[in-house]
Design a protein that fits this description.
By secondary structure, the protein is mainly alpha-helical. It has helices at residues 4-20, 25-32, 36-48, 64-86, 92-102, 112-123, 125-135; strands at residues 52-55, 59-62. α1 crosses α4 and α4 packs across α5. The radius of gyration is 17 Å and the shape is elongated.
C-alpha cells in the first residue's frame, strides 16, 4: 500500500487537478511546500507504482487506479475535517493540521461509518447542538 508521503502527493494532485484541471511539478512543489526535485522523485516513484503516468519534460497524469486512490484520499480528508469541525476542535487551520496528523491512520475505504455520522449531523444540526450542549455537563 501507499506510504503517508505518497498519500499526501496523491491527495494534493487530486486537489490541484480538481482546481486547475492539471497539476505540474512546480504547482505540486508549491502546494506541498517541498522542492521541485522532491516532487520529481516522488512522481517517478508513483509512476513506477502504477499510480501516475509520467513522461519526462511532458508532465504526469493519473492512471485509473491512481485517480481512484486520489479521490478516496481526498474524500477521507474531507470527511475527517467535517467531523472535527462538528466536534468544534478549533479553527479551520487547527482542524486541517489535526487531520493532516491523523488521516493516514484511517483506511480511506473504511470511512463509511464516520461519513454516515457526519451526514446525519449535517442533516440534524439542532440535534447535534443539543448533544454537544448536554455533553458539556
Amino acid at each position: 500500500m501507499s506510504t503517508p508521503s505518497q498519500e499526501d502527493y496523491l491527495e494534493a494532485i487530486w486537489v490541484l487537478i480538481d482546481q486547475k484541471g492539471y497539476a505540474r511539478v512546480t504547482d505540486l512543489a508549491e502546494y506541498l511546500k517541498v522542492s521541485p526535485a522532491s516532487v520529481s522523485k516522488m512522481v517517478r516513484r508513483l509512476n513506477g507504482d502504477g499510480l501516475l503516468t509520467y513522461e519526462r519534460y511532458r508532465g504526469f497524469s493519473f492512471t485509473p487506479h491512481g485517480r481512484k486512490m486520489g479521490r478516496l484520499l481526498y474524500a477521507r480528508h474531507q470527511i475527517l475535517e467535517r467531523l472535527l469541525t462538528h466536534l468544534r476542535m478549533g479553527s479551520a487551520d487547527e482542524v486541517h493540521a489535526t487531520v493532516e496528523g491523523i488521516e493516514h491512520h484511517f483506511d480511506a475505504r473504511r470511512l463509511d461509518q464516520i461519513e454516515q455520522l457526519v451526514t446525519y449531523i449535517d442533516a440534524h444540526p439542532v440535534w447535534w447542538d443539543q448533544y454537544l450542549d448536554s455533553s458539556k455537563s
